[in-house]
Amino acid sequence: MIEVEVLFFARARELAGTAATRISLPEGSCVQAASDRIGETFPELRGLLETCRFAVNEAFARPEDTIEDGCRIAVIPPVSGG
Q1: Structural domains in the chain?
Q2: SS3 category, 55
């Protein structure tokens, strides 16, 4: 198992009720697996996660990118502006 830190930003932080958490995942997990686990842990985020971008160690990541023990995953909701 690996353990990663998850950081929530903007609307994701509001819905999760926290700025950060830690999750455990099987070795060889990808960003999508982390997103799935986040949705299991924070059901109120499930709908939002589908539109979020994810960053791993401060670099944008694709759903299929593998994550490693101790990495930091940022959950970044879409933003709107005018």
Answers
A1: 2-76 (3.10.20.30)
A2: strand
